[in-house]
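Every protein is a chain of amino acids, and every chain bends into a shape of its own. Below is the pair of lines this work produces for a single protein:
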Amino acid sequence: MSTGFFPRTAVLAAALVALTAVGSAQAQALVGLTSSNQITRFNATTPGTSTSVAITGLLAGERFVGLDLRPSNNTIYGITFSNRIYTVNEFTGAATFVAAMSSAAVTGFQGWGIDFNPVADFAGTASLRLVGSGGGNFGVVTELTFRLHPVKDVFGGPMFFELADAAALLAYFRDFIADAPREYGGFPAFQIAPPLPFVPPERVGEPFIALVSCWTGSVAEGEQIIQGFRDVAAPVAEHVGVMPYPALNSAFDALVPAGLQHYWKAAFVTELTDEAIAAHVEHGSRVPVVNSTMHLYPVNGACHDVAADATAFGHRDAVFAPVIAGMWPDPADNQAHTAWVKDYYAAVAPHSQAGGYVNFASPDDQQRVADNYGAGYSRLREVKRRYDPTNLFHLNQNIVP
């Protein structure tokens, strides 16, 4: 069964799937990588007829993560789960070793894909990008259309409060966000303070209850909104003010560099009870490293304007979507930090719905797929049976036909 195909005349990347036409535009031959580690070729106009050849030249037990065409030299490259780069002959399946990656970017056996950046490649920098799977039960996204709202500057930023104030802040946020103005977006989090200029040096590395806010209305109104949180507890540190929206949107990128270990759990909540808050305070306060966190995302506003059965998102009755995001740099810490995520989730699960947000799911969450997709799962299975009856797109939180 094929895990993906890629056209030679265009480069796409989505999960493990890429599409590329071989040879002339008239021929429209496609080359793909199968789940049995074979190269498959077929004509786009007659996809029922294909030829496959076994890949040779790899180490014993080695398999490709994915393949893509390098535009500048018209050669297919692949990366294996052993973090080794090869070129591949699409006709014979012969793989030729090129180089070992300097760091183990491929970790675990979740979905990965590779993608040559054509602009960088033709500029001489040969940018080969590694992308992780975000799902994709029904196909490959090749185009997105957004309905945008013009926003230049916003008012907001992060605030850090003492853990002793966590329960009061979470309770206040629960009540505030229920009917908050739609100009406000924000979420509470448990976070170790990174070494930022506004954090007192002696408090760097300590865990806090944090709040990230974004206000798109007037600054005066935004000040009133933020002051409500200050009235509950005095911040230890904050960086709140007027800033370009992209600056706030990218403020935490440095906490998640490439190469981290990941283990996440997620839930949906219809009521953030006092008991749930107590569980969050107990386990969120134990956040192990600066990269790990818990974000308590509100599900409200425009999301609740849409009928529960109108789209594939099946949890419009939820009011919060907590995500326990375990991320850390050293594989030696896998067991300890995974245990933090599991223990945290076990504590909040009794106060949550059965499912969680699909994009936050871990590879061992396959048994939760029906709950994760929620009310729309049966309809999604019908679509899957119609458009992907052989489960071609299966390297994801899989909806089995």
